Amino acid sequence: MAAAIEVRDLVKRYRKGTVNAVDGVSFDVEQGQFFALLGPNGAGKTTTISILTTTLGLTSGSVKIAGHDVARQASAVRREVGIIFQHPSLDMNLTGEENVRFHAVLYRLYPYRPLYRLMPAAYRSQIRELAEVVGLGGEIFKPVRRLSGGMRRKLEIIRGLMHHPRVLFLDEPTSGLDTASRRNLWQYISDLRKRRDITICLTTHQLDEAESADRVCIIDHGRVVAIGAPQEVKSDLVHETLHIDAADRGALRSRLHALNMPFSEDGHFVVRLDGRTAYEVVHSIDQPLTMLRTESATLEDAYLRLLAGEDA
């Protein structure tokens, strides 16, 4: 089976630009995977996603979405993708439901009817389900100009999911959402991905949202600087640590040296586990401990260290 997303040596240089905004980026995303594209502002994330979704042309390289070339088969690509952009693109003079209805009609999901109540039952059921999932409820029938920023974000999400895309691009999808709506949205997307084998491509500054991704790709200055499963990226850059202390610090220090365990001291002992379990380390220490705490590495830790250019 062909990859859902294939990117090969992608380059984008803007007119009058002195450097490439995207500089030789390559990656694959398998069908049904949850893929996260991460990087600081100006790293090239938005440019990359814009090319993948056919809203921006590439300078060189190749990109295929669901087997379709973005440069030569843009219309076919658009039929396969759903896009939830960071900045809303809604008609402020229509109601939320009317915005969604016109989207559904353009994708030929349903025949057009001038009133919501005249639309097919399947459409009305889908609208109610999605509005409930993201916490919009009856607000979807209000004019968009009367909706808050968070409500407009929810409306964008509903619109992006209406045509059951094979590849769903999420650009800061939870920006402006409250905690409950954010949790509900991710639960819905997770269930949807399992039921329909949808591929998810996420860009976000909320790095905890990328922890559950199958693979992450971190780009900086237009280049890929790390790619792999979150655990692989974390293990390459940061270490899980064990924080311990004892009344007899000298004896504990000597024991750690004898066990050849790398550690530092910061008011207590910080031991790098390096593949060992906390139980194994504690079990090998004879001294009674007055402090015991483990600290797991997060994707955010790895991300910040990578961008700071620090060694693991």
What do these coordinates show?
It contains 10 helices and 14 strands. The chain has about 300 residues and is of the alpha/beta class. The chain has 2 domains: about 5-230, Rossmann fold; about 240-295, Alpha-Beta Plaits (2-Layer Sandwich). The strands form 3 sheets. A 6-stranded mixed sheet has the order 6-7-8-3-9-10, sandwiched between helices. A 4-stranded antiparallel sheet has the order 2-1-4-5, with helices on one face. Helix 6 links the parallel strand 7 (about 165-170) and strand 8 (about 200-205). Helix 3 (about 95-105) packs parallel to helix 5 and helix 7 (about 230-235) crosses helix 10. The two termini are about 35 Å apart.
What does the radius of gyration come to?
A: 24 Å
Structural class: alpha/beta
- Overall structural domain count: 2
Count of beta strands: 14
Strand order of the largest sheet: 6-7-8-3-9-10
Approximately how much beta-strand content do the residues carry? 15-25%
Distance between the termini: 36 Å
CATH class of the largest domain: Alpha Beta
Number of helices: 10
- Reported by name, the CATH topology of the largest domain is Rossmann fold
As a percent range, the share of helical residues equals: 25-40%
Main β-sheet: number of strands, strand sense, barrel status? 6 strands, mixed
Query: Architecture of the largest domain in CATH?
Result: 3-Layer(aba) Sandwich
Order of helices and strands: EEEHEEHEHHHEHEEEHEHEEHEH
**Outline:** elongated
Question: How confident is the prediction overall: mean pLDDT?
Answer: 89
CATH superfamily of the largest domain: P-loop containing nucleotide triphosphate hydrolases
**Unreliable runs, pLDDT <50, ≥5 residues?**
none
